């Protein structure tokens, strides 16, 4: 019997599926393997930056601290976007490895709240049901 599982290359956006209702129902949080870009209010909501620090510190100082602590991979000064560091397996730091559920769902970043309406190919998802990450 031939398996219905196939591998999708997340970097080839032309292979992505159009998002539709119910697509996430059988997904194992594969979108949580993509880089998560956040802004300062997201970091405050996640409890990674203190509100006082956000108001009084320069973004570059905050980014240096977050990068040194392994919380962020990088910071883009012009867009004021931080990219969160992922675990060694490529998963989001907030994804529970056993349940594949978000551990900060109520506080999740705006980019996660708006997926898939925002991203490299709005309205499309790199993964569909019965697919596994590459």
Account of the protein in words:
The chain has 134 residues and is of the alpha+beta class. The chain has helices at residues 40-45, 51-56, 59-68, 110-113; strands spanning 6-8, 17-18, 37-38, 72-76, 81-84, 124-125, 131-133.
List its salient traits.
134 residues; globular; 3-stranded antiparallel β-sheet; alpha+beta; 7 strands; YkgJ family cysteine cluster protein; two-stranded parallel ribbon; disordered N terminus; single chain; disordered C terminus
Helicity, in percent?
10-25%
Please mark out the parts with pLDDT under 50 across 5 or more consecutive residues, or reply none. 1-7, 129-134
Shape: globular
The DSSP helix count reads 4
> What's the N-to-C terminus distance?
22 Å
Pfam families: CxxCxxCC (PF03692)
InterPro entries: Puta_zinc/iron-chelating_dom
Organism: Aquabacterium olei
Protein name: YkgJ family cysteine cluster protein
Quick summary of this structure?
This protein has 134 residues and is an alpha+beta fold. It is built from four helices and seven strands, in the order βββαααββαββ.
């Amino acid at each position: 019997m031939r398996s219905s599982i196939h591998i999708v290359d997340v970097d080839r956006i032309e292979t992505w599926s159009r998002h539709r209702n119910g697509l996430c129902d059988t997904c194992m949080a594969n979108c949580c393997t993509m880089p998560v870009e956040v802004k300062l209010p997201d970091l405050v909501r996640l409890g990674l930056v203190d509100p006082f620090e956000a108001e009084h510190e320069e973004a570059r100082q905050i980014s240096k601290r977050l990068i040194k602590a392994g919380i962020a991979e990088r910071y883009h000064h012009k867009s004021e976007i931080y990219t969160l560091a992922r675990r060694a397996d490529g998963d989001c730091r907030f994804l529970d490895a056993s349940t594949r559920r978000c551990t900060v769902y109520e506080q999740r970043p705006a980019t996660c709240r708006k997926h898939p309406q925002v991203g490299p190919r709005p309205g499309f998802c790199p993964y569909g049901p019965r697919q596994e990450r590459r």
